[in-house]
Amino acid sequence: MLPRWHFLFGMIFSVILWLIWPQISLLEAVIIFLSSFLIDFDHYVSAVYNTGKLGLRSSFEHYEERRKIYLIKKAKGIFMKDHLQIFHTIEFNLLILGLVLIFVWKPLIYAFIGMLFHSVLDIGWMIKTNKIHCREFSFIYWIIKRL
Fold first, then answer.
1. What is the distance between the alpha carbons of residues 12 and 107, in angstroms, rounded to a whole number?
2. Dihedral, CA atoms, 12, 3, 74, 62, nearest 10 degrees?
3. Are residue 33 and residue 96 in the same domain, yes or no?
4. Are 96 and 138 in a shared domain?
């Protein structure tokens, strides 16, 4: 899912939670909103790693080029995986959940809610567009495949 959709849906989700859940302060709603799309920072890091270019425009160009290659390969029956996005892995999400449960630090709880919302949007979008096979969901599995 493109960042602009995460931004929009994250904003809507945060406002709705803020309005219907009186325990959430405006700051906590902002934390949910920010974490609902800033989790995609790992896409930028991956693009920088794979291209050697720091610019945000270069990152978008890299993913647009990968999208074109994906479509060409898909037409030939070849399905390629995307780069590993570390913040989108099960292990990273479990790490954050573990920190939430251990430290019960409220800002981290709301960051986790935003990240979870982001992941649900991603999975729904990947199912809808038949791209669920493109994402690597486990860092450990990604490492094992490379050994």
1. 19
2. 180
3. yes
4. yes
Residues 115, 57: one domain? no
How many helices (H) and strands (E) the chain has is answered by 7, 0
For residue 10, give the nearest of 128, 130, 113, 135 by alpha carbon: 113
- The predicted-structure confidence for 40-69, as pLDDT tens digits, reads as follows 999 999 999 999 999 999 999 999 999 899
If asked whether residues 53 and 115 sit together in one domain, one would say no
In terms of Cβ atoms closer than 10 Å to its own Cβ (0-12, 13-18, 19+), residue 107 is exposed
In the block, tokens 């074109």 appear at 68
HEC string of 79-94 equals CCCCCCCHHHCHHHHH
Q: What is the 3-state secondary structure (H, E, C) of 92-124?
A: HHHHHHHHHHHHCCHHHHHHHHHHHHHHHHHHH
Give the single-character DSSP code of 125. Answer: H
Q: What is the pTM of this model?
A: 0.87
d(CA 7, CA 42): 16
